[in-house]
């Protein structure tokens, strides 16, 4: 008999039909009621066995975590909180599970504990919901861009360049680390390495994306990126997924419009298509909020927070305006920030970003025109202002509870200006000729941005630690499997 998915069964009105359900036992009560989950829904189906006719040796093997197949009639349930159950006629244990050794108990586990057994956490409701939402968001992203004629471009994972120029790269090498080949001056001889040069895992697909945008017009990438930054925070991963659209003939305003439209589209998609999961996650978050002191609790529930984001235009201000607001802010005056804002030019920390979004504007904020000194080499340079300050056409989108979710800019299209900036920043111009050809041959104004996928999933699911929204988190000292 064909297997029926629990999700479909829970909504059925066809009582009396004969079905087979296969899944894993969540609980087994009173030697009679099996709660089975097959992953298709957060909700379980109840299967009722007749213990008077089932062998004792079989009943004993129905334990939390064991895999079973049940066949029987779908009947209306008299039990609380469920409409449908299965009256079991045939029961098969597909895979045993020793309850003594199985780490998951039929109770609520802490996220910390589940992180310790990350290889099994898919089997919990929380992670079922989180990764379903993650899946829906990934789909929505592809849908958004494809509906608008953007071409999905696969950029390489192994590269020879540092797209961000920040030196936070993981080396890729086949050289024998205990016996490195040396040149005459004693430095490592990368000519002997696999690619005949030094290579690393990509930190961003942007530069390759620019090549494609200046031919296709509008493209996007969506792939894994890697950063060897030693930031052990709840917002950083060493391996994360990034969506990077790149568009010819877009200026900064067009870039901001596209990013705002994308974010609203995918949040709307999740609200429309993941209502069960988001309702569950909303409840989970409410429980978590109860543990906090009253004054630290969020005023808005998850669903309200997501809708709120859709209903409001994102606030667009310059870095210079933001610094003014932060300088005069209460936490700065009262020295409550860890990093006090004193002068123009400072990089914003997440405490500042969150102040602007959560306390000052109370909605997402797009900050533009950052000091050139704290941004990447490829950003379009503004003309020097009256006070001799240099800024670039950057834009960062800041979200409540997250801080920076998007980083992007208009790109410097002038070959001369770009080369000058690269030299100032000690970026090897000769090795980047392939990139500079975009500016040599038919250069046009163009823009793009990077959306951190896990930060988006964090926001939509209301989870608080980035390790809980990627199936296999990679963080400093943690790459277990
Ligand atoms: O601001 P970033 O570094 O920008 C770029 O990489 C550009 N090349 C993007 C572009 O213009 N095409 O990173 C973009 C976004 C950040 O806003 C953040 O959401 C996310 O990527 N991000 C990280 N997410 C998780 N862990 C990390 N270590 C991250 N670093 C950046
Ligand atoms: Mg950034």
UniProtKB/TrEMBL annotation:
Statement: the UniProt record of this protein carries the keyword Transit peptide: no
EC id: 6.1.1.22
GO molecular function list: asparagine-tRNA ligase activity; ATP binding; nucleic acid binding
Annotated protein name in UniProt: Asparagine--tRNA ligase
CDD domains attached to this UniProt entry: AsxRS_core, EcAsnRS_like_N
Domain Aminoacyl-transfer RNA synthetases class-II family profile: 131-471
Subunit: Homodimer.
Xref: Gene3D superfamilies: Bira Bifunctional Protein, Domain 2, Nucleic acid-binding proteins
GO terms, biological process: asparaginyl-tRNA aminoacylation
Compartments reported by the entry: Cytoplasm
Organism ancestry: Bacteria, Pseudomonadati, Bacteroidota, Sphingobacteriia, Sphingobacteriales
GO cellular component terms listed in the entry, alphabetical order: cytoplasm
Alphabetized Pfam families for the sequence: tRNA-synt_2, tRNA_anti-codon
Family note: Belongs to the class-II aminoacyl-tRNA synthetase family.
Coiled-coil residues: none
The entry's keywords: Aminoacyl-tRNA synthetase, ATP-binding, Cytoplasm, Ligase, Nucleotide-binding, Protein biosynthesis
Catalytic activity as recorded in UniProt: tRNA(Asn) + L-asparagine + ATP = L-asparaginyl-tRNA(Asn) + AMP + diphosphate + H(+)
Main location: cytoplasm
């Amino acid at each position: 008999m064909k297997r029926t998915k629990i999700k479909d069964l829970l909504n059925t009105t066809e009582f009396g039909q004969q079905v087979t359900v296969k899944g894993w036992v969540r609980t087994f009560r009173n030697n009679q009621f099996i709660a089975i989950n097959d992953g298709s829904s957060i909700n379980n189906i109840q299967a009722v066995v007749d213990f008077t006719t089932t062998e004792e040796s079989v009943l004993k093997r129905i334990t939390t975590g064991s895999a079973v197949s049940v066949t029987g009639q779908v009947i209306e349930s008299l039990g609380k909180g469920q409409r449908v159950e299965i009256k079991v006629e045939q029961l098969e244990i597909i895979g045993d599970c020793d309850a003594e050794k199985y780490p998951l108990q039929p109770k609520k586990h802490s996220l910390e504990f589940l992180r310790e057994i990350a290889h099994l956490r898919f089997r919990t409701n929380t992670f079922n919901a989180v990764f379903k939402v993650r899946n829906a968001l990934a789909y929505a992203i592809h849908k958004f861009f494809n509906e608008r004629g953007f071409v999905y471009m696969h950029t390489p994972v192994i590269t020879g360049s540092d797209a961000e120029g920040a030196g936070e790269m993981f080396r890729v090498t086949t050289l024998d680390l205990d016996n490195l080949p040396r040149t005459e001056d004693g430095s490592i001889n990368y000519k002997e390495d696999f690619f005949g040069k030094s290579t690393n895992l990509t930190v961003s697909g942007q530069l390759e994306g620019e090549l494609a945008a200046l031919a296709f017009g509008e493209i996007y990438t969506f792939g894994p990126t890697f950063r060897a930054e030693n930031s052990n925070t709840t917002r950083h991963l060493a391996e994360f997924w990034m969506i990077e659209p790149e568009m010819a003939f877009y200026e900064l305003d067009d870039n901001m419009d596209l990013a705002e439209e994308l974010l609203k589209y995918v949040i709307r998609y999740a609200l429309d298509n993941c209502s069960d999961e988001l309702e569950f996650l909303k409840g989970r978050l409410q429980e978590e909020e109860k543990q906090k002191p009253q004054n630290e609790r969020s005023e808005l529930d998850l669903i309200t927070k997501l809708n709120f984001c859709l209903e409001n235009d994102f606030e667009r201000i310059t870095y210079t305006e933001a610094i003014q607001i932060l300088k005069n802010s209460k936490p700065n005056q009262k020295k409550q920030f860890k990093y006090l804002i004193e002068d123009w030019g400072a990089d914003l920390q997440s405490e500042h970003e969150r102040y602007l979004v959560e306390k000052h504007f109370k909605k997402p904020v797009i900050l533009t025109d950052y000091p050139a000194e704290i941004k990447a080499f490829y950003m379009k340079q503004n003309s020097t202002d009256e006070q001799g300050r240099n800024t670039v056409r950057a834009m960062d989108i800041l979200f409540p509870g997250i801080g920076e979710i998007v980083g992007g800019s208009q790109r410097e299209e002038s070959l001369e200006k770009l080369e000058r900036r690269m030299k100032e920043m000690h970026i090897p111009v000769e090795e980047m000729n392939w990139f500079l050809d975009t500016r040599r041959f038919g250069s046009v104004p163009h823009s793009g941005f990077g959306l951190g996928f896990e930060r988006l999933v964090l926001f939509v699911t209301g989870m608080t630690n980035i390790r809980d929204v990627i199936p296999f988190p990679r963080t400093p000292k943690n790459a277990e499997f």
